[in-house]
Amino acid sequence: MLKKWITVGLASAFILTGCNKVEEVQKESEKPVEEEDTVVEEVSQTFEAPLTGVELSDEPSGRAFGVMINNDPKARPQSALNQADIVYEVLAEGNVTRFLAIFQSEHPENIGPVRSARDYYIDLASGYDSLYIAHGYSPEAQEMLTSGVIDNLNGMQYDGTLFKRASFRQAPHNSYISYENILKGAKQVGYDMSETPEALPFYEEDELASITGEAAENVTVAYLKSNLFKVDYKYDTSSKKYARYSNDEQTIDLDSEEPVLLDNVFIAEMEHTLLDDSGRREIDLTSGGKGYLLQQGKLLQVEWKNVDGRILPFLNGEEVKFVPGKTWINIVPTNPGLEQTVTIQS
């Protein structure tokens, strides 16, 4: 009998122990499963400035504006040329060149000296839907501006208000304007300054090594053999930029003394026709022709085409990309032509 109770007791103990283990397993399975922390990497979105291709952290905004800038020796050094995205250098009357500086990515506090308008500069500014800034005009340019072909602010109407006269220079080499006053004037007239221009094509970083051409570290552009308007571009291998010189003096900013440094220099040959005894010109901006493109210390022989008002380089029928950064465009006459106007030294 005692043996029977011992056997029954052991069996009961075994059953209870088994039940406890089952309950422990069930309790363990009922515990919430701890989830592993999921790390989500935030990918920061980057943008590019439309006219320089330079990387931006914020989406670009704002209309381009083109300013006529004086290049008379009495107007040098100028203000804000180093901040322009694109600069066109073109002959005005006689052997004098003048600049159309197009800004979008930078907003200078002081720009000038501002000079008078010409019809072909208006056409070039229109290619970027720029608000066109000038002080004065030729008869042809005045007719275009009054007919409304381009939104514009002119010092003839705003001298002493939007346009300020510098005391250290004499007229017509002393008219200046600020970005703040450009916005102020645009608001007064009702011009929209929000529309960003269409972007130019730019090389990606890993494409820069594919740039080809003959070595061109020192390039001279001689406008009608006038030393006062002779331009030299000197390539710096460390910065991979071209410094600009005029009449053997480096082009710097009047206010900051920072040099004009360029990533692209585009020299385009165009037909020039004299219109009158004053030396006013007509320039063929539409027919296309020969050009030189300087990038990364190399010169590539290209063709230029007018694409919706923009003078752009082409090779074998395909548009050539720009190196991200600043661009200077020299327009030279077909007579005497590129070969006689431009000297290349490696």
TrEMBL record:
It holds the Pfam family DUF3048. InterPro entries: DUF3048_C (IPR035328), DUF3048_N (IPR021416), YerB-like_sf (IPR023158). SUPFAM superfamilies: YerB-like. Residues 51-191, 220-329 form the DUF3048 domain. This is DUF3048 domain-containing protein. It comes from Robertmurraya beringensis.
